[in-house]
């Protein structure tokens, strides 16, 4: 086990109606919130009304910024920042999925620092300040509600980057599974894939951490047991709750403590598809993970075999890869690029971007040949 510091300052409130406390918490922070959300789902699932109702009840003034898109863009972050600064808000309230909360994380820094969001993402600018973030989660997937990472896209230079900073832990996160009841079939499934992929990135990470390994296995087992059940019963609150909590734990550091790092190669490869074709994040992962395992079967064979033994009672590397592929496709997720409308004529373009924007993993470093092999297998 490697040395580590365990730190997670987010106060996470889970369950029925927890958002009713947001006004009370906000009133201890300030009196003017920038309320950030996406393209309207929050207006239908009750989260917007509940949030704004509680904020108003505690006399918090609210300025809104809406329209954040999936695979969120740095332009929206800068626009929202300007509105937040003009109105002198003292906190950011994010209502939505990972795209909205990730955007809010950068907005909170840029409001406090009056800086450029992309310079923060690329580490050209080192932020020291942020206004507090309160996050109301409506989609179980990314884990952003209890971590300090944000992922943003720059459509101009075709880059999608992740950035991590302690300033970006939400101060409070509110997880009412009821808000996720309206999540459509495809995004529900992508969320399950994403949480499993986060566990796999930890599993294939650097360093030996047996307890973290056991957390990984437990979280994947939750997803494998309750995920398919949820896909057959999307309106089931109890199943939504189990998947929501599993997704949080898949990326709140629990699976990383004691390791030097996760691997993250599959995520980074997936970002190329999102940048080029706006492919949803979870869909990139269900396409790339099985292909990555096939290419890595020689170098990571032992780890794949252990995973198969723990999850399926079968140490066969080939069977383990097939089982993951089947799990993803049974959820209704794509496993080849063609399933999301990316034709094989796009290979050249994908490879070009993969080479232009350094695509690299933290543990199983990919050679150019291996990267190309993955690319061949996803078609
Ligand atoms: O536009 P809105 O109205 O917000 O609708 C969203 C969007 O269309 C909709 N939605 C969300 N909750 C809903 C709902 N529709 C109906 N009912 C609900 N309750 O779902 C669509 C997708 O939303 P999005 O926020 O994009 O999904 P997700 O939570 O999967 O976030 C994906 C983003 O997070 C990044 C990804 O790269 C991607 O950009 N990630 C962030 C991470 C982090 N911060 O730690 C780690 C992840 O690996 C990931 O990279
Ligand atoms: Zn992810």
Q: What is the arithmetic mean of pLDDT?
A: 97
- Count of helix runs: 15
Query: Secondary-structure element sequence?
Result: EHEHHEHEHHEEEEHHHHHHHHH
Largest sheet: 6 strands, parallel
Number of DSSP-assigned strands: 8
Biggest sheet: strand arrangement: 1-8-5-4-2-3
| Shape designation | globular
Radius of gyration: 20 Å
Uncertain runs? none
The SS-based structural class is alpha/beta
Bound molecules: 5,6-dihydroxy-NADP, zinc ion
Summarize the topology.
Layout: E1 11-14, H1 22-27, E2 32-37, H2 41-44, H3 47-57, E3 61-65, H4 74-86, E4 91-96, H5 98-113, H6 117-121, E5 133-137, E6 149-154, E7 159-164, E8 172-175, H7 185-203, H8 210-232, H9 237-250, H10 265-277, H11 281-295, H12 301-312, H13 317-330, H14 347-356, H15 368-377
Helix pairs in contact: 4-5, 7-8, 7-9, 7-11, 8-9, 10-11, 11-13, 11-15, 12-13, 14-15
What does this structure look like?
This protein is 49% helix and 11% strand. It is an alpha/beta fold and 379 residues long. The chain has a 6-stranded parallel β-sheet, with helices on both faces. Strand 6 (149-154) and strand 7 (159-164) form a beta hairpin. The structure holds 5,6-dihydroxy-NADP and zinc ion. Residues 38-41, 45, 70-72, 96-100, 102, 138-139, 141-144, 147, 149-151, 179-180, 182-184, 187, 190-191, 194, 251, 267, 281 line the site of 5,6-dihydroxy-NADP. 5,6-dihydroxy-NADP is lined by residues 38-41, 45, 70-72, 96-100, 102, 138-139, 141-144, 147, 149-151, 179-180, 182-184, 187, 190-191, 194, 251, 267, 281.
Short description:
With 379 residues, this protein is of the alpha/beta class.
